[in-house]
């Protein structure tokens, strides 16, 4: 870490930021094309939930663990470059899929590709930045999801309205191929310096790493909280545009841009301010890493319910902005908890285990439950069934907050460099 200048660190962070933007662009562009996909392939909301949930999440989760083990010992820039190439090609395939099941298979490929980014990215940040600056660096990379989400909704919605949903996938996937070359050639790997200066410690076994993590109560609280948080995030993220079109009767193009802009501004503000405050306040008491996301999740969940109760687009967007700022301010601390307690030899593995469970049981279950609830409730409540379905999913965010607050009681005991 000492071998890199601030300029080199920030250049690396800028590249990782672009990787994250591409990842979330490709991941969320599907959210604005659900309605035309539903119409073209004549599928139910449950099938849309399958497309946005298990088709992506199952393969993301299954591929994430072996990739993370590779990242704990291998060349992380090349792992990331391969991942970017794969998800970009799979997104392009989404644009030419002839059937719903071909589209579903392509989305599974996107999931496999995107599993190779967050664990090595977080591991690199931990090696490049000192602990007192780490949460801010993490927050900057996480804020890229805002840009990706805005591109997915704003650009994706506009392109879909003008040229169709297939072109939206092509526009999302193409830039990643050039980005993969940049990552492979320009992103630094601190382990190359380590290998030149001293021999590395033997790799830790799966069993040893997992046993180490399992004994940490604060890590288990992050595990549970992340599952619940992802269930909410993916349910809201993928179905919100459909909700605004179907329930509030807003046109897809303008509403995708307005909603995407609100989400982008709120998450960017929340993530960067939250990362700064977490770095500053956690110096006084490390338990802030748990207290901040716990309180933020609970407050955000309550505000989201109020937003869904609004019958006007303006009221929804205002309350959604407040809730998204609260949510965005809390998320960087979750990764900082893992960095603080997992130990340097198993960072990528610790992050991948959280992402595996959160993606498989959270992202994989959240959208399909939301879709199934919407189908069931719509029998009685019509188009408002989707509103009530999303309200039910909001409870998971409140429970996630309680779970992470519980972990704050053990974080001091679990600290490990």
Could you characterize the architecture of this molecule?
The protein is mainly alpha-helical and 417 residues long. It has a single domain (6-189, 206-414), classed as Up-down Bundle (Growth Hormone, Chain: A). 83% of the residues lie in helices and 0% in strands. It is built from 20 helices and no strands. The model has no long low-confidence stretch (mean pLDDT 85).
CATH class: Mainly Alpha
Uncertain runs are: none
Number of helices: 20
Shape field: globular
List the helices and strands and how they pair.
Elements: H1 6-28, H2 34-41, H3 45-52, H4 54-71, H5 76-94, H6 100-114, H7 118-128, H8 131-163, H9 165-173, H10 175-186, H11 190-197, H12 206-214, H13 217-246, H14 252-282, H15 288-309, H16 313-342, H17 347-363, H18 366-381, H19 385-407, H20 411-414
Characteristic key phrases:
417 residues, mainly alpha, Growth Hormone, Chain: A, 20 helices, 83% helix, globular
Describe the structure in brief.
The protein has helices at 6-28, 34-41, 45-52, 54-71, 76-94, 100-114, 118-128, 131-163, 165-173, 175-186, 190-197, 206-214, 217-246, 252-282, 288-309, 313-342, 347-363, 366-381, 385-407, 411-414.
């Amino acid at each position: 870490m000492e071998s890199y200048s601030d300029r080199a660190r920030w250049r690396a962070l800028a590249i990782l930021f672009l990787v994250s933007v591409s990842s979330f662009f490709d991941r969320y562009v599907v959210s604005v094309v659900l309605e035309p996909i539903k119409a073209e392939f004549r599928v139910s909301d449950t099938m849309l939930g399958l497309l946005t949930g298990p088709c992506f999440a199952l393969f993301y989760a299954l591929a994430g663990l072996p990739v993370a083990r590779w990242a704990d010992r291998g060349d992380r820039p090349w792992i990331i470059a391969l991942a970017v190439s794969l998800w970009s090609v799979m997104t392009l395939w989404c644009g030419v899929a002839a059937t719903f099941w071909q589209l579903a298979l392509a989305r599974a490929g996107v999931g496999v590709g995107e599993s190779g980014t967050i664990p090595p990215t977080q591991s690199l940040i931990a090696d490049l930045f000192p602990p007192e600056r780490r949460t801010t660096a993490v927050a900057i990379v996480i804020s890229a999801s805002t840009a990706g989400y805005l591109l997915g909704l704003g650009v994706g919605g506009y392109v879909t309205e003008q040229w169709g949903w297939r072109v939206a996938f092509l526009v999302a996937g193409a830039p990643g191929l050039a980005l993969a070359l940049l990552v492979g050639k320009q992103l630094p790997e601190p382990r190359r310096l380590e290998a030149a200066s001293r021999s590395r410690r033997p790799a830790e076994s799966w069993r040893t790493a997992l046993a180490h993590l399992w004994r940490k109560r604060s890590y288990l609280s992050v595990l549970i909280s992340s599952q619940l948080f992802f269930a909410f995030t993916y349910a809201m993220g993928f179905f919100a545009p459909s909700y605004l079109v179907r329930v509030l009767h807003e046109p897809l193009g303008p509403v995708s841009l307005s909603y995407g802009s609100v989400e982008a501004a709120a998450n960017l503000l929340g993530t960067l301010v939250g990362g700064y405050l977490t770095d500053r306040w956690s110096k006084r008491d490390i338990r802030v890493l748990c207290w901040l996301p716990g309180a933020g999740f609970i407050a955000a969940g309550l505000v989201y319910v109020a937003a869904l109760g609004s019958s006007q687009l303006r009221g929804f967007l205002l309350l959604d902005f407040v809730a998204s700022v609260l949510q965005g301010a809390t998320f960087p601390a979750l990764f900082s908890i893992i960095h603080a307690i997992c130990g340097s030899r198993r960072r990528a593995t610790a992050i991948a285990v959280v992402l595996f469970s959160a993606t498989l049981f959270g992202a994989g279950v959240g959208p399909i439950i939301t879709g199934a609830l919407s189908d069931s409730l719509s029998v009685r409540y019509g188009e408002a069934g989707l509103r009530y379905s999303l309200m039910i999913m909001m409870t998971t965010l409140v429970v996630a907050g309680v779970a992470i607050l519980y972990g704050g009681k053990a974080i001091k005991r679990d600290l490990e460099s």
